[in-house]
Each structure stands twice: as structure tokens, then as C-alpha cells.
Amino acid sequence: MVIQVSVCGPRDCTSEDESNAREVGRLLAERGAVVICGGYTGVMAAVAAGARSAGGTVVGILSRADRQDANPDLSIVIPTGVGEARNGIIVNSADAVIVIGGSWGTLSELALAMRRGLTPVVQLGGWRILDRDGRPLPGVEHASTPEEALARTGLWPGR
Amino acid sequence: MVIQVSVCGPRDCTSEDESNAREVGRLLAERGAVVICGGYTGVMAAVAAGARSAGGTVVGILSRADRQDANPDLSIVIPTGVGEARNGIIVNSADAVIVIGGSWGTLSELALAMRRGLTPVVQLGGWRILDRDGRPLPGVEHASTPEEALARTGLWPGR
Amino acid sequence: MVIQVSVCGPRDCTSEDESNAREVGRLLAERGAVVICGGYTGVMAAVAAGARSAGGTVVGILSRADRQDANPDLSIVIPTGVGEARNGIIVNSADAVIVIGGSWGTLSELALAMRRGLTPVVQLGGWRILDRDGRPLPGVEHASTPEEALARTGLWPGR
Amino acid sequence: MVIQVSVCGPRDCTSEDESNAREVGRLLAERGAVVICGGYTGVMAAVAAGARSAGGTVVGILSRADRQDANPDLSIVIPTGVGEARNGIIVNSADAVIVIGGSWGTLSELALAMRRGLTPVVQLGGWRILDRDGRPLPGVEHASTPEEALARTGLWPGR
Questions:
Q1: Domain range holding A74?
Q2: Which GO cellular component does the record give, naming just one (chains A, B, C, D) (predicted)?
Q3: Whose CB has fewer CB within 10 Å in chain B, the N or C terminal residue?
Q4: Which residues from chain C sit within 8 angstroms of residue A82, using beta carbons?
């Protein structure tokens, strides 16, 4: 079965997040991975645009029950109608999760991915989570470039 | 955007349902539609096999949070983890819903599709619903062959 | 633990459905059962009003993520934000399901309750479901009065 | 309508979290608030026990579709069957959210509550979230005692 990578990030993102997301999308498509995202604007639109520019397949898992506001670069649209509960569906669909930038919705996806504990979770920019003693939580991989983000998923070991 | 058709039906289906599902899957793939289904066995497996035999794309929207028991003909797997609530997601993702055969789970999908009221719903075999006066409920299209099922969706008017 | 009974029915119901729902709510409250419903208007409002008139507790499981349009007789409000997926939550929360009247949303609840197969499902009025040979599906109990609906749940055998 | 306060926290919690949760439950019940929680063990069990000790009402919003592992102090049990998507339902049901202790599941609830942005969110112990410049995110209230946690919800201004 084809590799599926979920890319999470805010609607309102920085221009650096946007450019990182576009590049992550392009690189994933080049490696033949299906990109899964939330299907709206910001990081979601950028990763979709990047993947489509390289001929990739992008699945948008929408919170709404219809296609309103879905971005035009999605190959397949899943209007769940379950609101923010779609965040967990994005995460459950992934062989690896790449988180770009920070927002409360994005943090819920990162947390659900770590809660699930089955697949690599890589952060590229964004927020930091500390335990009650002020130490970084173990388990989240950190990357500083799109290339490194893909490498840290461990899905393409030969490269 | 590509046309998405959801095909619903029971795990435990008749051999006629299975052969209808396989043919519906094949015909949908030939017309370039993405097939969406529940991703497990019975009608779901048959429609996936039919679509794949014609080179089509099949999305499985699973009730489980992981890929256990997912059928091997799925192109893309969405393990929702929301249980039977995934039935509504299958329906919301459709430009048309084709229902093959009968079971309580299948009936919930038919009912949610009619409740939504946005897309054609076509039944091929299966159960019948009567109002309190014993009359068939209006709105559901009935077909007696896979070809007729596709025709009654109204999605390919030129054919 | 207290007995929980879910009562399902349409927003747009007949006056007979409404009066049945009110009486079912009252009887359930008198027996000390918590009433669970969809929390909006029609049958949902009537069963809530009936239960509250007898001092009962009513939980409204809303489709929306906020309390907008919730009916005022609810004791506890659960705005799920998962849309029609809340229908399955109503059903899963029940020691018995009583269905009053008919609509596509109501039928989805009846179907999900039968799919679950764990608790009695009683219909008071409403639609009829036939198998492919035109025979009524076994398993659903039918009642013609509110008193009989409660009796057919089997939850109060001593009465 | 009665005030509903959701209390979130890990299954595996510290003894301090547990004692804080028990006290928060007791205080909420004394003020007449309905306590909403995840319904299992750890912080969820402690807040339920505390609330019940003061005669309060506790609603458990379970991830499972049945009552297995539900803790015995729940007044009302909602087995959603939607898995971790129940976290958002807990949050949507709240007039205020109190988060006790830290875990990835708990963090997802805190994040969803902040994402929603409609109600106060108070942390008592647990993890810290920093933005990309290492600064604490604004909006989350911090308390160091159960009494202070209730005060910071702002729901009982007269006290």
C-alpha cells in the first residue's frame, strides 16, 4: 500500500511556514507518498499546492460536512461533518505526521499523534511543549528544513 | 474536481450483491470516478476489487483507528477511529450514493444520505422503507442492474 | 447505575407523535430513568418537556458544537460538534431505544441501534422496514401506546 | 441552565494530581455545577469521586461504544464510540475547562478548548506550551490550588 503522510499546520501561518509546507508537499509527492491534510487554507493549502505541483495526490479531510472553502488543489475531498474531530482522523490516517508551524488546532493534532504513539511525529518550526519541570517532552522529532523533516520520519531509510 | 461516488453495502452479502458491487466498481472506475467505501469485506471488498480491476482509485473510510481488516484493494485508507460515525463521513464525501444489498449498517448509510438530501441515492437490491401508511418513501432511486444504478445517479448525463 | 433510555424522533412530527413523546418522557421520569435525546425541537422537545414535568433528568446530545437551538427543558447539554454522528452517540448511551415517528434522521438512529444489537429497540408509530422479499425485519419491537413502549423495553419486568 | 465544568487529566497521574482532582470535584459539586469528564481512571476517577462525595452529578463522556472500564462514580454515562474524538465533545460541553496534570491526551483537550475560544481554560499543574520564540502562550489561566482553579474560571464572581 502507498505511504500516507499527514501534514498539519495553521490556517494563519507565517510566510516561512507556507514556504516550508509547499516544499514538504513537493518532496512527499516526489517520493510517491499521498499527502493528507485538513484541506483549507494556510499550511494546508501550501502543502497541497506543493504536492500537486509535483503531480502528487492530496486528500483533504474537512471539518465541514460539505466542500465549502475546500482548497482547489485537493485530489480527493472528505467532508467529514464532524468538526474538529476530523483532526484525529488526519492523524490516524498517517504513516508519519509532519507538523509545520503553531496554532491551538495544530497543537491538538500533534498531541493526538503523540497520544496514538504509532507513527513518527516531526515538527518543523512551531510551538514547544515542556513537562511540569520545564523539560522538553521526549518523542517529538524536530527538523529545521523540509528535507530534514522527511528524513526524520524514517520512512525513506535508503535515501 | 474528480467525481466521488460512495458505494454502501453489508459485510455479509448475497452472491448477487457481491457480483453487482464488483460490476458497479468496475463501471465507476471506467468513468473516472473515485470510489469511496467502508473498506472492509462483503460489498465493500467487491466494489474495491471491481474498481481496481479497471485501474480505479478506491478510498476506504474505516471505522477502526488502525488498518486492521482493511481490504487489500484500497488505494487510500482513512482509519477514522470514530466507529459507526464513519458511515456519515462516507455519505458526506459522495457526489452520489449507491446502496447495494441490505443490513442495519447499510440502512443507516442510506438514511443519512437521504437526511443530507444533497446528492442522488440509488438502491440496487436490498431493503425497502415504507412510511406510516405503508407507502414507499419518495426520493430513493431504484435500479435493477449496475448499469442502471450508474445511470440513475444522473452524474453522466451524456451517456 | 441509573437506567438511561434514548428517545428518537423527528423535528417535524405529527401531533400524535408529539403527544406520545410527551407521555413517554413523563413515564420514563416516573420510573427514575434518565431520558437521552437529540435536544432540539419536535419529538425531542416533547419528550424533554414530559420528563421535566415529572421531575426527571434529560440529557440533550446536540449535533452542533454550541447550545444554539437547544430546547429549554434539557437538564444537561452535550454539544458534540460532530453533526449527524451524534445519532450514534444517542444510541450507544441507551439501555433501550424508543423511536417515535419517522424521518430519515430518525431512521438512521433506529438502524444504528439495531446494528449495535445490544439493547431493545421499540417503535411507536413511524416508518416500516421490509427485507428484499417484502417481509418485516425481525428484531424491532412495535408498540401502539406509550405505556406499551415502556413495557416492550423489558427494563421494568416487575410492572 | 445548570453550570457544566469539564475536568481533564491523565489516566496515569501523580498523587498530587489525584488529590487536586478530588478536591476540584468536591468544590464544583458544592457550587452546584455538573462535572463532565472522560469517565475512566486517574484524574477522571478522582474528580468523579470528589463530586459524588459532595452529592454532585458527574457525566462521563467515554471513548468506547460501551460501558467497559467506566468508573463507578459516574451519574450519567455517554459511551460515544468515537474514540479520541470524544475529547472535543468534553470540551464543547463546558462552561469552563479545568486541566489537571499532563499527558498527550490531556494536551489535546487543552488545545481543543483554546481552539474553541469560548470558555475559560484553567491549568492546575501539568505541561507548559511555549510559542516559537519560547514565550508562554497567552490565554490559559494558571492556578496552584483547587480553590484558585475554580476562582479563575470566573463562573462564580460573587465568591
A1: 4-153
A2: cytosol
A3: C
A4: 81-83, 85
